[in-house]
Amino acid sequence: MRPLKKLLNRSADIRTFGFGLIWSTLGTVAVRLTPLITTVLISHWFGIESVGKFAVTYGTLMSASMLAATGVSLMATRNIAAFAHSEPETAGRLAGMAVLLAGGTGIALALAIYLFSNEIAGRILKQPELAFYLRVISPVIVVSALNSVQTAILSGVQEFRTIARLNMIMGVLMIASVPAGLHLYGLTGGFAALGLAYLAGCMITTPAMLRALRSRGIRFSFSGSLSQWPMITRYAIPALLASLLYEPVNWICTTIIVNRPDGLEQVGLYFIAMQLETLLLFAPQIVVQVLIPMLSSGFGEKDSRRVRNMLAMGIGTNLAIAIGFVAVMMLFGDWFLLLFKLDPSRDWPIFMIVVLAAAMIACALPLGQVPVSSGHMWTGLSITGGWAMTFIIGTWLLQDQGAKGIVIARVTAWLFSFIAYIAFTAFAIGKLRNRTS
């Protein structure tokens, strides 16, 4: 009976993983296409320097949004998945606390960027003309952070189909509105349209999130939500610090490059390279989104076999995807560069490094969720800290090489992180196996 039960559980995991992957892929495609389409249009309509302006401003928006939402989002997904069945009241309070914290942090960051936009643009970025765009994107930070946390709550109750439908609606709104805004009012119109799309996304997601929680007997509640503060110190704070180290580090490294005489052009080239990485990694990142709540359940049940199976499915799926996109880019990479009006003979080495790095990152992503899912958040923070220091130091040392230097520094940082994640995963599974034996 016991082997039969394990077989049935494994089949259920495979089914959940498969359906979650399909729905999440469908929903994410449109959202991920928006920055890519926007970058193509800017490069054609306004030139590579305007791509640099967009990249720095959009990077500031994403950095602040992730800073506001990533920590509480990971906390919400992990712990709502763990408590949804056993303690639904706790899960409801955790959801309420996540929304409160993301909203409050988003408002604080938006105000800071709005009030100090001149100082950030003039003194840090050495590009005073960007101050106006920073003020334009400041309110978008709040709605972007709230939308991320709402999606994380849905992920915690494994509502992948709902997430997919909402993402498809969001993607259609973005793809329809952002190019129109760009065409009519330039970068200002593009950022304003992006903000309206995020606002509409929040308004649509809220009732869907509440329905999903109610269907599982979870009552969303702000009352008593701060009583879950230990979850903040154990999960959200290290995840928040990790997000502080991760996305803003990209911003710091682009700031190092943008101070060159041809800084905006080099940042524009790097941003296009990162759009390629985003395009290549969108499917592997979806695999990870599906994997997190399932890994959290496996670690919560202290089931080492289930954890190994889930990691094998995640890494195997991402490896197959990585082999596919490396082959495609080897064959059609020149077309991608020409799409952005770049010179393949001059710029291809940078993009080849990005392609090979994306293949490595795809395989590392499932292992990167082990510290989160196993509750060792501070270990994950330490690994991310090592990644951040390697990336910043490498960029500083290679800044004379411009976009190529920052790409090489980023690859080196990910290589060291991959090795660290492999070592920690072996430790975590071995520890889990010892507990169950």
From TrEMBL:
Keyword tags: Cell membrane, Membrane, Transmembrane, Transmembrane helix
Protein name: O-antigen/teichoic acid export membrane protein
Subcellular location: Cell membrane
Transmembrane segments: 21-48, 54-74, 94-116, 136-154, 166-185, 191-214, 235-258, 278-299, 311-336, 348-368, 380-399, 411-430
Organism field: Aquamicrobium defluvii
Domain of life assignment: Bacteria
Bilayer topology: Multi-pass membrane protein
Listed GO CC annotations: plasma membrane
